[in-house]
Write a structure and sequence with these properties.
- Helix content is 54%, strand content 24%.
- The protein is built from 4 helices and 5 strands, in the order βααββββαα.
- It has a 5-stranded antiparallel beta sheet.
């Protein structure tokens, strides 16, 4: 589930990415993080632009060297994603068990949590693709 971007020996591209993460109109609204001492850490959410509500976010980790022009970015799920996913899967398992042993109506609840897990996973994929799309927009 990790997406990466590697730039090697292109100082102009690295410089434009690092400055636009702080000054670009889109990233000013969707990215929160720091770029110091060769490290880039932060969180990105494009879905927050919809009604100002943060539905999910992705974690951005990276290392850069301005002089050499090297940049390595990774987009990974944040801890919130893993916590919510684990809890939803536990509830899904519990409701499925209850549906087997007691009442078939618990299956409807278990399917609801299964669809929520799929929804959060799709949101993560869309967020990571959106981040990479905007980084590529800056590069080109």
């Amino acid at each position: 589930m990790k997406r990466t971007l590697d730039i090697i020996n292109k100082p102009e591209q690295v410089k434009s990415i690092l400055t636009s993460i702080r000054k670009d109109d889109h990233f000013a609204k969707t990215f929160e993080g720091i770029t110091e001492n060769g490290l880039l850490n932060g969180f990105y959410t494009n879905l927050a632009l919809i009604n100002g509500v943060v539905i999910g976010y992705v974690k951005i980790k990276g290392q850069y060297n301005r002089d050499k022009g090297d940049l390595k970015l990774e987009v990974v799920p944040g801890n919130l994603y893993w916590i919510i996913l684990t809890l939803a899967l536990l509830v899904f398992a519990f409701l499925t068990y209850k549906g087997i042993t007691e009442n078939k109506m618990f299956y409807i609840g278990s399917l609801l949590f299964l669809f929520m897990v799929l929804g959060w996973t799709i949101a993560f994929v869309l967020e990571s693709k959106s981040f990479m799309k905007h980084i590529n927009r800056i590069i080109n």
